[in-house]
Amino acid sequence: MSTATTTAPLEEVVAEGLVIDGLVKEYAGDGYVVRVLDDLSFHARPGELVVLLGPSGSGKSTLLSCIGGMLSPTSGSIRLNEIDVTAASRRTLDEYRKRHVGFVFQGFNLIPSLNARENVAVPLIVSKTVSRTAALGRADEMLSRVGLSDRAKHKPSQLSGGQQQRVAVARGLVTDPQLLIADEPTANLDHIQAEGVIGLFRELRTQGRVIVVSTHDARLIPVADRVVRMTPDGIEPDQGAHEVRLTRGTVVFRQEDPPEYVYVIESGDVEIVRELIGGGEERLAVLRAGQYFGELGAMLGFPRSATARASTDVVLTAMPPHEFRSKVERS
């Protein structure tokens, strides 16, 4: 069973973008019911990159199938701008998938016998919305956008994994969709190839479409505008910005811990120390009210480079990196 929380309450939701409200998806088993999605709600505005973060089995692919109009939820609603996906007729859903949604699959799903240009043009050719010449011309534009103009005539077997994923992204964009859905886009890539695809998603979010990416890869968190944690029972979800009160001597985080939050000091002092080989430590700084710490690890996805410890009783505001970035940009 999966639930999700995000930092934006639905009371603030406006009509534009992707709105998921109270989504439930159940499957009947042998005399029992499995609830894969349980009252899930979030909103993504145009131009936002949403990361669905969670392990296998947490409901990410089910959610993408519902958003893409391929699977009907048990209850709840999905709306993309003016389209009520959950109430749409079969004909409207067909039109929705053809014109308004682009798909990027984990396994690339490129046709081996076609070159990159032809693979990108396939959605337009199959739907017969434009001529073959126009479809190939549009494919050339998309390949240029993802930096693969020089690979247009290469077949998938002649491309690296990262290049194949970029072709898959170009294919997802060829219809100029309002929504781009990507299922585990970095799962089959090495570190360097994954960084290239992550950078591409960062660029694409500026063009006004909503991008929803499912992943268990925490490297995508720093570039996300919104993170939806698909959390099984017993795992604490992303709380959004929240207050943390600690007594003197309490460790906020340790060196080499995975990053989660940026911390703003509301009152009290926090010391930053580096743990040394042999058990000693080096004090790097003492921070006071109004200052913040932990931003580099959280924003870039790096492990903590030092330990943060309360040197007095402290009150902190813990902020997810995407929320902290928005706060900085506003100020």
Describe this structure in words.
The protein is an alpha+beta fold and 331 residues long. Helices cover 26% and strands 28% of the residues. It has a domain of 89 residues: Jelly Rolls, CATH 2.60.120. The strands form 4 sheets. The chain has a 5-stranded parallel sheet, sandwiched between helices. Strands 2-1-4-5 form a 4-stranded antiparallel sheet, covered by helices on one side. A 4-stranded antiparallel sheet has the order 10-17-12-15.
Low confidence ranges = 1-14, 233-237
Give the overall pLDDT as a whole number. Answer: 84
Tell me the strand order in the biggest sheet. 6-7-8-3-9
User: What is the top-level CATH class of the domain at 242-330?
Assistant: Mainly Beta
The computed structural class is alpha+beta
Count of DSSP strands = 17
Quickly give the CATH architecture of the domain at 242-330.
Sandwich
Task: Give a nutshell description of this structure.
Helices cover 26% and strands 28% of the residues.
Question: What's the structural blueprint in terms of helices and strands?
Answer:
Elements: E1 18-28, E2 33-44, E3 49-53, H1 60-67, E4 75-80, E5 83-84, H2 90-99, E6 101-104, H3 116-127, H4 132-145, H5 161-173, E7 179-183, H6 191-204, E8 210-215, E9 226-229, E10 242-246, E11 251-253, E12 262-267, E13 270-275, E14 281-287, E15 292-293, H7 295-300, E16 307-310, E17 314-319, H8 321-330
Parallel strand pairs: 3-8, 3-9, 6-7, 7-8
Antiparallel strand pairs: 1-2, 1-4, 4-5, 10-17, 11-16, 12-15, 12-17, 13-14, 13-16
